[in-house]
Amino acid sequence: MKKIMTTLALALAVTSVGTIAVSAPALAGPTYTGLEGTTALKGYDAVSYFVGDGVPVKGKKQFKVTYKGADYFFATAANAAKFKKSPAKYAPQYGGHCAWALGANGALAPGDPTVYKVVDGKLYLNFNKGVQTRWNKDIPGFIKKGDVKWPSFPDTAKFGS
Length: 161
Hints:
Layout: H1 2-15, E1 60-67, E2 70-74, H2 77-85, H3 87-90, H4 99-105, E3 112-119, E4 122-126, H5 129-136, H6 139-149
Antiparallel strand pairs: 1-2, 3-4
């Protein structure tokens, strides 16, 4: 029941453009790992968005790299090594939170690693395809606003808390 209520609360927050309270600014914001756990990108390989055909693939637990308190998994040791060398190059923007929610409303919302776009060499996630349609209408504007709002979220901020 708690999981159903949490899912409904997430959908309602994004649909009604909800916000969260934030107590103190920090230089970097939190990484979205779901409501529980430490896995970033739901286990998708962050490097896979940038190589080959750009379609994300699931990572393997044997190729794990921890970055900013989140666990990233990679399909190959080579991808894990690339990430270790330049994690900021491959990690999703806004800690994997929804780029539209942050840019449009200054709010944290979950980012879906299967609803994404690489813009100017940076990975952005959206909550779902409907939200991505809104984000696509003014990507540069939402990125500009999101880049301004993102640093105000402390590392401890969590969606839904």
